[in-house]
Amino acid sequence: MDTSLVSARTIGTFCRVDGDHLGKIYKNVLSGYREWDQLGHASEWVLFPQNLGPRDAIDETVIGGEVYTIVSNRDAHGKKGSIVAIIKGTRADEVCAILEKIPKEEREKVEEVTMDLSESMRCISERAFPKAMVVIDLFHLIKDAVEAVEETWMKA
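and the corresponding structure tokens:
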């Protein structure tokens, strides 16, 4: 179940057992979730320093109505080992306090951080990854340019 997109309920239906019960057994016994070293703070932040790479990205997203900052390793292409950190909130001081748990010498190996035009993300990147070059995601530049053209066209 670790690498499959099939739910415990689906497996339970296929095997003619209670899928909800199977899911609870998997979570509480088989997965090691209860012994996870980050369980105590996982609702606020998780950190996987081993996934840090030379080319990372930082962005914010909304999960369950809460805003989180996500740092990911771009070279992992969204697969296993992509997530470096997921931190509740976007305030630079709070996010950096978590990212600074990664040793400075490791953070200084980051060569490039891709981000949007957010001032908060820029501050986080410069403080947490002091030797990294900031790269603005072209999607955001193009989106802003298209919106500006549309706004000008609507006024004409």
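(Above: one complete record from the training split.) The longest strand covers residues 55-63.
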